[in-house]
Amino acid sequence: MKIAILSRNKKLYSTNSLYEAGIRRGHDVRVIDYLRCHMEITSLRPSIYLGDEKLSGFDAVIPRIGATYTFFGCAVVRQFEMMGVYSVNESVAISRSRDKLRSLQLLARRGIGLPVTTFAHDPRATEQIIKHVGGAPVVIKLLEGTQGVGVVLAETKKAAESVIEAFRGLNANILAQEFIKEAGGADIRCFVVGGKVVAAIKRQGKDGEFRSNLHRGGSASIVRITPEERSTATRAAKIMGLNVAGVDLLRSNHGPVVMEVNSSPGLEGIETATGKDVAGMIIELIEKHSDKSTESKTRTRGKG
Q: How far apart are CA 269 and CA 214, in angstroms?
């Protein structure tokens, strides 16, 4: 098969791992910088160009869309979908997962465990939103943040009020969330491929750090997850419409709660800690589900 990996940089661990896995399995794999693409939007003849080259003949695409470029990246993925190309994660699902508020609302509606979360626009509601999440300490998040950036733990009510007012002064949209103290600065990353948890790791924040992101100096180790955690992860990915997802869970006193569902989860931490060929599993997923009749099977076609 001819597979395109939509990524800004072939040298990134995740991109290179997917590239090598595809080559090992005998496929024609190409890394395409989606920001260099332009689209011709013509009735019944959608097309994508990279410079003067018309991109065609691809059987599948693997989107590795950076959070900063979600809008344009999803437009490129959508154009491939309109051309009948199978996408590991579809454009609508990626957009949905990148909207933190919408994601939480969708998960809550389907009964997925979540930290108590509040959202408001009125600056006079600051005291109420802190109260609704159980008071300080409280986690305050920028809706547009990623990899732990824009996430603050306010230890006191006064600190929480100051952080919220500061973010609002920048006209930023924020969420306030219950702080799950019993998690101890650790979370569980469940890697879901094709509706199954294929690998899981525990990510522990460095001393004095409540965020467990590996990009922020956290460490990763193999973890055995419970049936409830496995079910929560697979259900969360399904609700988001993602075939490949990194579902981040916290172990709370009232069961697993979902922090985030990531549509472009990194492979380095999970593959290094577990020794599993997760990239190969993603290529295998493509082999099972991609064929020339994809155009009629694209679930998000026409949903905008």
A: 7
Give start-end residues of each CATH 3.40.50.20 domain in the chain. Answer: 2-88
**CATH class for the region spanning 2-88:** alpha beta
Which pTM was predicted? 0.85
Query: Which pair of tokens denotes residue 38?
Result: 């332009």
Digit-coded pLDDT (tens) for 156-180: 888 888 888 888 777 777 888 888 8
Question: In the CATH hierarchy, which top-level class contains the domain 96-113+182-263?
Answer: alpha beta
CATH of domain 117-179: 3.30.1490.20
pLDDT tens-digit profile of 247-295? Answer: 999 999 989 999 999 999 999 999 999 999 999 999 999 999 865 444 4
Assign 32 to helix, strand or coil: strand
